[in-house]
Amino acid sequence: MARRTKIYEGKAKILYEGPEPGTIVQYFKDDATAFNAQKKDTIEGKGALNNRLSEYFMLGLTQLGIPNHFIKRLNMREQLCHKVEIIPLEVIVRNVAAGSLCKMLGMEEGTPLPRPIVEFCYKDDSLGDPLVSEEHILAFNWASQQDLDDMIAIALRVNDYMSGLMYGVGIKLVDFKIEIGRQYEGDYQRLIVADEISPDSCRLWDSKTGEKLDKDVFRRDLGSLADAYTEVAKRFGLMPTNNVTEGPKLVE
Ligand code: UDP
């Protein structure tokens, strides 16, 4: 078999050229990093779990008509996706105060926010992905005003969908990050959700106990990251039992 062309290797994924023009293959690694890669480890099974969970969430977005890059899962670790030009911004939506918001404003973790807050961070590891304003984004031409309006609308729709989905399985969606890319079709372009949606890029707390089921388990040494991600996958019925996947179990 011909060797695939690697397009890009990031901290948690590798992107290869896809079989058709306009496609890529996204490979999920077992590597976990935090604090701008100052903390690193390999967590066996993480790549397969994130591949499966991201597939599940992206398929849900497709069903709601929220455009995204996912085409199909190829195997345990790989998925076929539309190729996009990634906008160099992390789009963060917050429902509850946590992480950098608490640090920046001295808020207590867990404080509910009066409305969802959308933030943008400029994607540059050497700068630590700094928070930027719409003024910066427009002045430096990272995105147009129309792109910004579209990105905010997409991010809030993803938030509504993911919050409801998580609520149904007893999980609170505290915050999450998405990446958005431009997909070109002839002379036209549209913005679509790209990258991944997984416990690596969300904060997920058990609704009853507050137990963390996301990458904070790794960031703060709170236990087994693989166990936490497996618990999320189980709640959506994605872990095989006797080779049968059961579908989500709604909580009361
Ligand atoms: N996030 C991410 N990648 C990043 C930065 C943040 O996926 O490079 C996610 C993070 O997991 C959390 C949300 O975005 O769900 C908000 O993160 P925050 O700004 O609080 O930063 P952190 O505390 O993770 O450094």
Give a brief rundown of this model.
By secondary structure, this protein is an alpha+beta fold.
Explain what the structure shows.
This protein folds into two domains: 6-83 and 226-235, Phosphorylase Kinase, domain 1 (2-Layer Sandwich); 86-206, D-amino Acid Aminotransferase, Chain A, domain 1. Helices cover 28% and strands 33% of the residues. It is built from six helices and 14 strands. The protein has helices at 46-64, 99-105, 134-139, 145-168, 216-219, 225-235, and strands at 6-9, 13-17, 23-28, 31-34, 39-42, 70-73, 78-82, 85-86, 89-96, 112-122, 131-132, 171-185, 188-194, 202-206. The strands form three sheets. Strands 8, 9, 10, 11, 12, 13 and 14 form a seven-stranded antiparallel sheet that branches. Strands 1-2-3-7-6 form a five-stranded antiparallel sheet. Strands 4-5 form a two-stranded antiparallel sheet. Strand 1 (6-9) and strand 2 (13-17) form a beta hairpin. It is globular and about 50 Å long. The protein starts with 5 loop residues before the first strand and ends in a 17-residue tail after the last helix. 32% of the residues are buried. Residues 90, 92, 98-101, 129, 175-177, 201-203, 215 line the site of uridine-5'-diphosphate (UDP).
